Every structure is written in structure tokens, then in C-alpha cells.
Amino acid sequence: MSGPLPSSTEICIVGAGPSGLACALGLAARKIPFVMVDALEAGHNSSRAVAMQASALEAIKTVHPQLVDQLVSAGIQSKSFTVIDLYERLLFRLRMTELAAYTKYAFTLLIPQHTAERHMREYILGGGDSIYWNKRVVGVKEAADGVQYELQFESGEALTARYLVAADGSKSFLRTFAGILFIDPYTKKAAEPGKNDLSFVVADVVFASPLPANVPRDGPQVMVGAGGMVLTAPILSEDSADASVQNDNLFRLYLGVPDTPPHAPDAPYLQAILNARGPGSHLKTQPVPQVVKVVESSRYRTRMALADRYVHRAEGGAYILLVGDAAHKHGPAGGQGMNMGICDGIELAQAIAEHRKCAADAEKAGAHKAVQIMDAYSTRRRAVALQVLNMVDRMTEVEKGGQGWGAYLRLKFLWAFFKMPFTNGIFAWQLSGLGHAKKP
Ligand SMILES: Cc1cc2nc3c(=O)[nH]c(=O)nc-3n(C[C@H](O)[C@H](O)[C@H](O)COP(=O)(O)OP(=O)(O)OC[C@H]3O[C@@H](n4cnc5c(N)ncnc54)[C@H](O)[C@@H]3O)c2cc1C
């Protein structure tokens, strides 16, 4: 929808990425009305993520079980995650099947972020709710009544709301307005290149047929080497009408790069990296996969940061509530950001529902409890993010590869570690995020 905005609403979700959409799904399931806005002209957020973990699927299932079935059928169920060295020796294989006793989703779902978002959007729109595109928030202030915020849009429109959901990504306008610090939780430094400031190229490519046997079609494979990681993950095409995009040879590539890559890396750029440190580059028994088509490509620079709180309460009782990348940001190792954002969004919808109920209670005890509900959301989700950031930080060190005894011993240790079913299971559990699920 790109028509005029209403002038007021109780809840406004700013940002229709996966976190905002998850919050919208949670509200829609409770029949709580909201307005959702996004600066984009139409829904196609940059497709960064490809891995959806069991925690996100379980969280969505709590509000819309049918949507999870749709997502699962639109992706590839990857039972394991393989890490090899430049000579294609197996360093370790993480088996997600170890989770079978705890979840129906004992796999990592390989689904491009834009596909997942499309399914979530269609679900919301199918339920009669709308998303307003081309609505960039450019200003916020406390409304004259003191119990609402007023958002100003680039279009010149204005909208008042009591709850503002800041799902507006890592450069969040609303977080900045609220004065919430967004810093590296370990170095405590803001906006400075940290030790995990990494450059990545993300590209959806079609490889030439026949696909070399050293590029698995049933799950992601990471090759670690001195120049940075090379990850191949099979994906399904959304566009079955385009015969040149054959599902069998369609892959998402994540390439760690030491320098600043071009804006939209082309086939020769990607091929040069694969030739230097991709499958077949060092162990010459198999050919290097050849890129015949680049469907989409982009570059990213990531840095670790965490909001020092997820909730900002105005004097009059209006709220700014952070979800997703607006609250936490880290590298792509382990495919965690979108998952955490989806779980944030679904938990926030629950918190808003409980808060509205409490706030409607005129008694003082009710008002006090209402504040506690939001504080609990902030404390719980921030603690989850801190644990995930820690795990991603350790995984990033492995994916960076590196040379020398330190890197060698680390990989040997991991090889021994992942050999044991028990420890393999513990790590699969951590990666899945299931341990962070909210107890009913
Ligand atoms: C290279 C890379 C690979 C990744 N791989 C994975 C993975 O495999 N698995 C995983 O779980 N995560 C992964 N992630 C992380 C994942 O992509 C993000 O965590 C996820 O996109 C966050 O979703 P979000 O909705 O919080 O924010 P975003 O996706 O950034 O969405 C924010 C939305 O807000 C809108 N917006 C911003 N400002 C305004 C404004 N002022 N007014 C109105 N609208 C506004 C934007 O247009 C956008 O649509 C990866 C990230 C990178 C960089």
C-alpha cells in the first residue's frame, strides 16, 4: 500500500524487514491493529540471510503454524553444516539432526531472506492488514497530549502512536532519537572499526552444469583459508519461469573479502575469488565451480554492536521498542541475526499485548506491572543477544581462517570436539537458538 497514512494509530511498526514482520504477525494473531511503514518503495529488502534456524520456526509456529509449513516447503532442509580447509579436508561437520528429540525442525532451513519476507508479508496482507511503502520516517517528537509520539515522514505526513516498534535496522533512526547507545559490548566502543569489522560479498549465482561433486547440494559448506571464508549454500529459485535459473545449480555465495569489494560484484570478480580459494582451487581433483549467471549480488560490512536497552519510555508513557538489527548487529557467522530478530518481534508482540491489558487497568498496581512487562522484554532479549554475539564472535574467528600454530590448533581442537555426538549436539542446540525460547 502506498496511499495516504492514517493520522493516528495505537501501534506503529517502523520497518518491514523480518523483525518488523514478525512483530506484525504476533499482533495480527492476537487481532491487535497496527500500522506498518517502510521507506522502501516495495517489499524487497536486501537479501542478506539464507539460514533460518529452528528457534525462528518454533517462534513463528506459536502464532501462525501454517506459515511455518509454507516457509519449510519454500526452502531446503539442511541436516548438517560442513567446514573444510583449502585442501578440502573435513575440519568438522555439525549435525542439526542431533536436535530431533527437541524439535520437529531438526535442520537449518536454507531460504533466502527475501523469500522468507515475501511469505511473511503475504500472510499479513492476506489477513487484511496493510503495509505502507515509501514512508520514510524523518522526525519524531512527543505529541502534544504527552502520551503518544508523533512521527514525521518524508512525504510530509504525520502519524501519532503510543507504541513505536523500532524495526528500522542497524542504523535505526528511532534508536538514535531515543538516545540509546549502540556499542560493541566487549570493547564498549561506538562506531569505530572493531576487531570483527568484516567485509562480505553476498551473491546468488548459477553454476555451470555439471555441478562439481565438491559443491554439496544438500547443505552449506564453508571453506576456511587465509584470505577469508568461502561459503556455498544451495537455494531454491523463486522464479520457476526463468529457465536460466536452474534450481539444481543455484547457490548463495558468502565470500569474506579483505578489501572493499565493488557495489554489485560481477561474475569475473566472484570467479576470481573461487579460483583463488574456493572448492577445487588447491586440491585439483575436482574443477572449480564456474559462475555462469549472477542473479543478485551485493556487499556488506558488519561490526558487532548491542543496544544498551531495548525500551525507551517517554514521560507520558509512550514507548519506543527495539527489535532485530536496531537492537543488535554482528557478522553473518552461524546465520543468527534474522533469527534473533524474528524471535524479538514475536516476543515483543506478546509484551505489547500484555502491556495494553495491564495499562488499561486504572489502578496503580496495574500501571507499575505494565512498566515491568516492558523492562522484562528488554532484559530478556538483550541477555539472549549478548550470548549470541559471544558465539558469533568465536565462530567468526574460525571462519576467518588465519595462519600459524594458533589457527591450526584451534581447528584441530574443533575437529576433536565435533567428533563427539554429545558436544556436536550441544553446539547444534546453541546454533538453533532453541535454548533461548521463552518459557510459557
Ligand atoms: C552478509 C550477511 C549475511 C547474513 N546472513 C544471515 C543468515 O544466514 N541468517 C540470519 O538469521 N541472519 C543473517 N544475517 C542478518 C540478517 O540479514 C539481519 O539480521 C536481518 O535483516 C535483520 O532484520 P531487521 O528486520 O531487523 O532489519 P532490516 O532487514 O535491516 O530491515 C529494516 C527495514 O527498516 C526500513 N527502514 C529503515 N529506516 C527507515 C526509516 N527511517 N523509515 C522507514 N523505514 C525504514 C528499511 O527499509 C528495512 O526494510 C546476515 C547479515 C549479513 C550482513
UniProtKB/TrEMBL annotation:
Can you tell me where the transmembrane regions are? none
**Oxidoreductase: present as a keyword of the record?**
yes
This protein's UniProt keywords: FAD, Flavoprotein, Oxidoreductase
What cofactor does this chain's UniProt record say it requires?
A: FAD
Domain of life, per the record? Eukaryota
FAD-binding domain residues are 9-183, 295-390
Which GO molecular function entries does the Swiss-Prot or TrEMBL record give? FAD binding; oxidoreductase activity, acting on paired donors, with incorporation or reduction of molecular oxygen, NAD(P)H as one donor, and incorporation of one atom of oxygen
Record's protein name? FAD/NAD(P)-binding domain-containing protein
Species per Swiss-Prot/TrEMBL record: Mycena venus
